[in-house]
Structure formats: C-alpha cells, structure tokens
UniProtKB/TrEMBL annotation:
This is Serine hydrolase domain-containing protein. It comes from the Bacteria. It is an enzyme of class 3 (hydrolase). Its EC number is 3.-.-.-. It comes from Streptomyces aureoversilis.
C-alpha cells in the first residue's frame, strides 16, 4: 500500500526543482485557477505540490478535484473483479445480464474498450451540467439512434456505455455501484478521499474566458445514472495509491496479471498521442515508453493519471478549469522527468531457483526462415523471444499446464508456442501460430512448410555453399 504522507526527500534537489517548474509552467500557461501534481515511485508518493488558489491551510495532495473519466478505470476494475470471480465472461453479450435499451448485443469487452458502437453522449440536455434526475432509468440515457456503429467495428468513445457497465455491476452485486467500489476497491487501497460527492477541502470548478483573464463558476451536478462515466472526486494522494495498484496489482483487488490484460490495447483512438485503449485504460506511446492511465474532464475540472509500469513511476495532475488539456502533457512530463533524471535501479541479478531440462534445451538461437532470433528462459518457465538485428517480432510467453506457451504481448499475444519433438523426444522445431522456427536458417529435414531446396544455399555464381568448396 502506498505511503500516504507527503515525501519528496527521496528525490534529488534538481529533480524537485524540475518538477515544480513544470507544474508552475502548466498552471500559468494553462490559465488554471489552481493545479496540483504528484509523482508516485515504487509504490510511494515521493513528490507533490500545488500552484494557484487552494483552500486555506490545505495540503495540495489532500485537495479534492473532480476526476471525470478516470472514474471509468475504477468501474472497469469492478467489472474485471466480476470476471475473475467467474460471474461473467468478457465475451458475453451485455444483454445476457442486463435488460438494456441499447448495447445489449455488444460484448462486455467491447463496452470496456469503447468498441461497442454506442453513441458518445447521453440524451440531452448536456448530461455533465444537468441533474441526473432528468435521466432516472437506463431507458432515459439514449435518444433515437443509440447505436452509431456495429459492435466491434471501430473505437468510438461512449460515456453511456460506461453507465451500462455501472448498471451491470449493480445488477450482479445487488447494490449501488459506488458502494461496491467503496467496499471492494477504495477501502482496501486506503483511498478515503475518493468520493461520489465533494468533501472539504475541495476545489471549485471554473471556466476561464478565452480572451480575458476572468472566471465563470461551473455547476457540479450529480449525474445519477451517468455517474460511472465521470462522477468521482479524488486527490493526488489517493490517485497515487490507485496508480501504485494499477502498476503492480493488489491481490485484495486485482492481480498483476489481470491489470496487464487491462493495459493491452483493444481498439485504436484519434486522441492526441494515444495509440490505443485497453479495458478501461488509455494506452499512450511516448518517447519509447508505454504509458497507461486515463484522462478525465468535467465542467470546471480536468485530470490526468499516467503510469509507466516499466519505470515504476506515475504522474498525476488535477486542475479546476474547463478544457485545460495541458494537464496530460504536464502529467507525462512529471513522470518522464523522474524516469530520466533518476532512472530505476534494477534489482540485483540472481540465478533462477528452478529450471526444467526440457525448458533449458529450448534456449539459444532459432531461425524463422533466415531471420535470426534468440529464446531466453525466464522465471517460472516463461520464455522471451527476441529478434537479432533490426526488425522482427518479439514477445514473452507464459507456460501452460499442457506444455505449451501463450504469447503475452504485441503480435503474438494469445498465440500458442509449441516445442515439436521427434518420436525419440528430441526437439525438432518450434511452432508459433503455424510459423516454424528451426535451429539453422531454413534447416532441411521436413519441418519447414513448403520444403527446402535439396541443393541448399548457393554462392553468387550458383555454386553450392554447404561444403565450402564451391563444387556443384
């Protein structure tokens, strides 16, 4: 569990100065009445600060802001808990569990990844600025054309889709989605300052005039049925706790394996800098890093939570201004500043505690056709395939009980790796989703589909090269 106390002693003075400068620049250039930021490293809150007008006497990491669509990630965690408990399957149709006016033909995974094809917004008036009592039932969320695209066709962000997921949680658990969240996620993670309604000290929401430095207060409506799409309020300290959980998992809530699954992109998006959307998480490729998290906007507020699992670092930024999209860049810069100025110190190398001979014999050089690869054995019998030279597809593989391995990332995610053996038990070749890997480039012997020319490799003049003599 993350240490709740403010602590920047673990960072170098130059790093702290750079973080403060970036936050101050973001608040000033973004013309935000206030902006607070924090950094989580290795499960601890290591830096936090605030700029602008904060409630008197309040520490920046304890001031609540509305976090908008970061709420969706919390709801996704609840849905994945139901999946892990065997109460639903991601490929199930929503209509299997919920009598809904729209989205019933979409799968739960499609709703989580915004590929269900549902309309982007709830039926008017503008749901973010009006009382949820105007939409008391699920039937009230959708207009005449709720389905804008066929399920699974493309990524189309849908706020009502997450309202349906909240209703799904309520149907299966038998109580309000927020009460489920508070008991199953917030309490175990120590997130006491994440609430459905604001609790002092909290920031007030503002709009800033585009052509003058003047403010207009924004309403903070209870959105009712649309709450799972963006209702929550939180603090940078609580969101750093959440970021630590999203990075490493917590068996009281979700395993690290399930969170890794949620971070895998399922649909693309046109959002700036975003390369995909997983199961309730945005995935951003930035300067060689894969950042995951979520942005949130509501009238008067904007929020960004980004984690880099490879670095063990997260950046969180909250501001109380409508449409202050600078926060995503500030959060990314806070994270990368720490990662670059104070890179993660790797754990000490140590040998594997247990190795099976049949796994060890698979390691070393392999060839897909003439392309060279290496296969390394990792802890727990996992395998890591890496290309040699430029290009080629890399992946990690999880061992299965039947003696095969399943791909965990990129092109080979979900594909099966099998060590094919001869009748005598020796390894003949590797089969990876029908691709054949042999110990020599285009090795003769029948393993390579389509066969290998009997005369083998040739020199430039057409001579055989196998015996090194140039003889035909």
């Amino acid at each position: 569990m993350i240490d709740a106390s403010y602590n920047d002693a673990g960072l170098l003075p130059a790093t702290r100065r750079a973080l403060l400068h970036r936050l101050a620049t973001g608040q000033s250039q973004g013309r935000a009445p206030s902006m607070v930021g924090a950094v989580m490293r290795e499960g601890n809150l290591v830096w936090s600060s605030g700029r602008g007008e904060l409630p008197g006497g309040a520490r920046s990491e304890d001031v609540q802001y509305r976090i908008g669509s970061i709420t969706k990630t919390f709801v996704a965690v609840l849905v994945m808990r139901l999946r892990d408990e065997g109460l639903l399957k991601l490929d199930d149709r929503l209509g299997t569990y919920l009598d809904t006016p729209a989205g019933g033909d979409a799968t739960i995974a499609q709703l989580l990844s915004h590929t269900a094809g549902l309309t982007a917004e709830a039926r008017g008036p503008w749901w973010e600025r009006t009382d949820g009592a105007l939409r008391p039932e699920l039937d009230d969320l959708f207009g005449d054309r709720p389905q804008r695209h066929a399920p699974g066709r493309l990524h189309h962000y849908s706020n009502p889709g997450y309202a349906l997921l909240g209703a799904l949680v309520e149907r299966i658990r038998g109580e309000n989605w927020y009460e489920v969240l508070r008991r199953e996620v917030l309490a175990p993670l120590g997130m006491e300052r994440t609430t459905l309604a604001p609790a002092a000290p909290h920031a007030d929401g503002w709009a800033v005039h585009p052509w003058a430095d003047v403010l207009l207060p924004e309403p903070a409506a209870d959105t009712g049925r649309m709450g799972p799409a963006g209702q929550l309020w939180s603090t940078t300290a609580d969101l750093c706790r959440f970021a630590a959980f999203l990075t490493d998992g917590d068996e009281r809530v979700l395993s690290a394996a399930t969170l890794a699954e949620m971070r895998t992109p399922e649909g693309g998006s046109q959002a700036p800098g975003q390369s995909g959307y997983g199961l309730g998480m945005q995935v951003i490729q930035l300067e060689g890093r894969t950042l995951v998290g979520h942005m949130g906007t509501m009238p008067g507020f904007v929020a960004m939570l980004l984690t880099s699992p490879q670095d063990g670092i997260a950046g969180v930024v909250l501001a109380n201004r409508t449409s202050c999209f600078e926060v995503w860049g500030v959060a990314a810069d806070l994270l990368t500043t720490v990662a670059e100025l104070e890179p993660r110190i790797p754990a000490p190398w140590s040998p594997l505690s247990e190795v099976k001979d049949e796994h060890l014999e698979l390691t070393g050089s392999w060839y897909w056709g003439a392309a060279p690869f290496t296969l390394r054995l990792c802890a727990g019998g996992a395998l890591e395939l890496s290309p040699l030279g430029s290009g080629g597809r890399a992946s990690r593989f999880r061992p299965e009980e039947d003696g095969t391995w399943t791909g965990l990332n990129d092109y080979y995610a979900g594909e099966t790796l099998t060590a094919v053996r001869t009748a005598e038990g020796a390894v003949s070749h590797l089969d990876l989703g029908t691709f054949v890997f042999t110990r020599e480039p285009y090795e003769a012997g029948g393993a390579v589909p389509g066969g290998v020319d009997a005369d083998g490799w040739r020199t430039a003049d057409g001579c055989r090269a196998a015996d090194g003599t140039g003889a035909r």
